[in-house]
Amino acid sequence: MSGKPDTKASAGERQDTASPAGAESGAQAAAGAIHLPAVHLILSDAACAPLIAEYGRVQTLEAARMLLAELRGMMLASRRDGMPPTGDTGIPAILAMLATRLRETNRSPLRPVFNLTGTVLHTNLGRALLPDSAVQAVAEALRWPMNLEWDIDTGKRGDRDNLIEDLLLELTGAEAATIVNNNAAAVLLMLNTIAQGKEVIVSRGELVEIGGAFRIPDIMTRAGAVLREVGSTNRTHLKDYAEAAGPQTALMMKVHCSNYAITGFTKSVELPELAPLSKKHNIPLAVDLGSGTLVDLEQYGLPHETTVRETIAGGADLVTFSGDKLLGGPQCGIIVGRADLIAQIKKNPLKRALRVGKLTLAALEPVLALYRAPDLLPGRLTTLKLLTRPAAHIRELAQALLLPLQAALGVGYEVSSEPMMSQIGSGALPVDQLPSHGLVVRAAAAGRISNALGILEQRLRALPLPVIGRVAQDALWLDLRCLDDHQRQRFTDQLALLAL
Ligand SMILES: *Cc1c(COP(=O)(O)O)cnc(C)c1O
Questions:
Q1: What are the alphabetically sorted keywords of the record (predicted)?
Q2: In terms of domains, do 187 and 318 share one?
Q3: Which end of the chain has less Cβ packing within 10 Å, N or C?
């Protein structure tokens, strides 16, 4: 590395050459030299070329300037405090810092993690993971123009809902279907279309709040509908609905108690009872199913959850549900039901604002198509594969990972392999849990350090693929249900970094 100025350096880089590099400014020289290389020398160093190739000259220069300014500030501060200068400020050391800084700045804030929380459909971790067929369809939709709103048979303009409507009707027995951005949007759009300025009858036991500020009473107000609460928190009877029904009523609505259960002295009115009343008064009956599954989960050994088909068959005129909960697809909200009501919903200008993009449709179609072979579903649909994973299988995995994790964590922690319970998540079957297995980490009794679990959680989060577990009862619980066999190697590979 010669000390000659880089002849290719931009004017901007040259301006910096007046200070450090050896040629100190008068004031600095008086106070004793701050030895930092000039920015142009850093940029023209051969070892900087890969950084410039990856991040571009403009960004690399800017980052180098900021780094030098910070180093200079730190050096001046330590001199002022009478401390010895710290750290290596040679060009190789500065380039190493620059590389780290550029890598960190350019790392996506949206990152993959290991979900070892035991909650399979974890809203904060992005809910359903999609099968490869959906991943490939999305990749293709990203690269190619698509017949999103174009009917290939007729060469005329089409409707994007048509791409998945037939499949949805086949799987639910409904007359018509439409799709929006998420289930909250589906409920909003349905209420605004059917009940703006009119009353919607809902049981007090079903005025739920789903996480993330989705509350039935609030969404009702925003949709311009008037909530007519009936019954009480624990008990609502058919006569409560009957007494509230009148010319001012636009809709009767049932809401799935997704994330809680009312037990004890309770009574709610189920569809077979409510449907005849709604028919008698000619008031449409809507059900917000929340998770909305398309198959009977009991056939896979899971607890029963009312299916969309059962809800339609039970007399619901409209049913809303999420695409990324039990269904196992991309984030979206699906509305199925009576053709005349769906037609009204599709005409609402809000539908345009809430519609889904081509990536969602590309991902949803192959997921729905898997439901045509329900017997093969647990092998194909990622969500169901995870939910039906046998505890014995998860236990084998836990036992294989026990020693590597213990070795990486060292003597400060004790790792054991223990049974635990997973949850489905996203409000599906909140009370039911799935037998699972995993690793439990406790602070070692001897030489206990304070906040050992907090430190451990932080170390796991700092890994290249952050590991997210659950702290309870003075232990960190790592439920291995969602650690797929093909991710296992990546999990063990990075354990070595934990020891550092
Ligand atoms: C989850 C849920 C919603 C909201 O669905 P998103 O797809 O998250 O918008 C609405 N209603 C019920 C009953 C739910 O469980």
A1: Cytoplasm, Protein biosynthesis, Pyridoxal phosphate, Selenium, Transferase
A2: yes
A3: C
